[in-house]
Amino acid sequence: MEAISDFVSQINSLVWGPPMLVMILGVGLFLSIGLKLMPILKLGAGFRLMWSGRARGDEDDGDIPPFQALMTALSATVGTGNIAGVATAVFLGGPGALFWMWLTALVGMATKYGEAVLAVRYREVDERGAHVGGPMYYIRNGLGKKWAWLGVLFAVFASIAAFGIGNTVQANSVADVLSANFGLPHWITGVLLMIMVGLVLIGGIKRIGQVASALVPFMAVSYVLVGLLVLAINANEIPAAVSMVFSYAFSPAAAEGGFAGAAVWAAIRFGVARGIFSNEAGLGSAPIAHAAAQTKNPVKQGMVAMLGTFIDTIIVCSITGLVIITSGAWTSGETGAALTSLAFETGLPGFGNYVVAIALAIFAFTTIIGWSFYGERCIEFLFGVKAIVPYRVLWIVAIPVGATINLGFIWLVADTLNAMMALPNLIALLLLSPVVFKLTREHFEKQKALGVK
Question: Global pTM?
Answer without folding.
Answer: 0.90
